[in-house]
């Protein structure tokens, strides 16, 4: 029993119902080819020689497709392996303006931000922190949030990205939607400073089927589900619309239902019973109509 599971997952079959469900729902790293390639490129950026014109990366793709998980995996691995923190992750705040942008950086560096909207003072504070902390990589998650302000503010943000490489030897990594790609490639100067790491929607191909096999091996169900079987795989792909976050959410929900019901396997019928609504259809879903 459980021969289809990874060795470290199999013992969970003997755990309580609550423990198994908690394990199924726990966040997990999905080490697919694109994710491993991105981690490798980030490590190369971390080990680069000092330079006055540092290059950065863009990790661009649709929402719910694993971009943030890649960045967090890289940052955590660096923290575990290094005595000093050289990688910092900035959660770019929603809201237009430089005060929001600088506030995001100060928050990431664990510095007091106060209520001041004096952007000049915030910029000086950031420079002082960079001098002391000497970061090598600054990762801006949801960077498209910084591109929704006035054009002069956006240009100041882009100038900031150019300056931190020249002045502090920092490589910026920008994570976000396609708007990030558009803004960076609007001028040759910015385009020459950033390499694109695309995180596109998944296609229905062998890599997608391999992803389903790896998910099945990581979920403690005592019976084989054969997630990569044509009929079941097609249904998961249709509902997920090729977004890895949605793929994992669907399989996780179906696995929890299989444990609770005692079925111990995922089938197309059990996936259909979830009544899962794809992201693109949620705005017009029957559930929304019932809220009116």
TrEMBL record:
Pfam families per the UniProt record, alphabetical: TniB
Superkingdom in the source lineage: Bacteria
Protein name: TniB family NTP-binding protein
Organism of origin: Bradyrhizobium campsiandrae
Source lineage: Bacteria, Pseudomonadati, Pseudomonadota, Alphaproteobacteria, Hyphomicrobiales
